[in-house]
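lol forgot to send this yesterday, sorry. struct tokens for the thing we talked abt
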């Protein structure tokens, strides 16, 4: 059950691992972003993006999106992975409680602590040491309205402080931390600690729910590994 006593505007990144930047994009900037993404096929639930013309300026540390990440990570903040999600009546999925644990890199290099390699959408992914994930943030840029009926992201505030959470402990952690539904309006940006426990229900009144999700980091990778980037 969603804890309605926690007003989303009062969440802070430091305490809760989540923070809302209300109307971070102006109506003009939102139109520009839609135009940048307009050539992408609409029938994909989640599409990993790289080399999309015009997007880098939005995600740069001084850009309208990247500046939200830079407010936490500093001017060295950089986007390291971007995915476009769209829930519709045809792609109306649910996602159980979990932590994001992989990063995208340019190529596979054997480095201690980097394990469980995989290829997603032709891009090399790996699970890094959890301390690295703890220094990252994730932004979700909302292009469409996300009321309670349109599958808002659910988070467990404060769970980002608990390290790597074994799957068998996830339900108990969610119960102790409580649950918040991250409602949003077009142009809103939600900032999260990348390791925060989160989930998503299927929409009860499905409509377009386009979300541009970008992971940001503030430093380089060790041992010759390189961020894939956007």
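and heres what i got for the seq, position by position
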């Amino acid at each position: 059950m969603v804890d309605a006593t926690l007003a989303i505007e009062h969440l802070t990144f430091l305490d809760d691992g989540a923070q809302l930047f209300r109307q971070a994009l102006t109506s003009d900037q939102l139109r520009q972003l839609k135009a940048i993404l307009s050539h992408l096929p609409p029938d994909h639930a989640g599409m990993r993006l790289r080399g999309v013309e015009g997007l880098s300026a939005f995600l740069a540390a001084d850009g309208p999106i990247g500046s939200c990440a830079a407010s936490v990570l500093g001017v060295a903040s950089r986007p390291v992975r971007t995915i476009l999600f769209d829930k519709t009546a045809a792609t109306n999925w649910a996602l159980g409680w979990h932590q994001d644990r992989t990063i995208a890199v340019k190529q596979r290099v054997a480095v201690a602590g980097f394990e469980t390699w995989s290829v997603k959408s032709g891009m090399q992914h790996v699970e890094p040491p959890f301390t690295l994930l703890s220094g990252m943030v994730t932004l979700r840029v909302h292009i469409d309205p996300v009321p309670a009926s349109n599958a808002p992201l659910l988070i467990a505030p404060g769970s980002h402080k608990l390290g790597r959470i074994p799957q068998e402990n996830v339900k108990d952690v969610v119960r102790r931390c409580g649950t918040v539904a991250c409602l949003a309006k077009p142009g809103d940006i939600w900032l999260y600690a990348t390791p925060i426990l989160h989930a998503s229900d299927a929409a009860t009144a499905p409509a377009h729910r386009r979300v541009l999700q970008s992971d940001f980091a503030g430093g380089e990778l060790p041992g010759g590994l390189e961020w894939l980037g956007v």
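Residues 27-37 form the longest helix (11 residues). anyway ping me if u want another try
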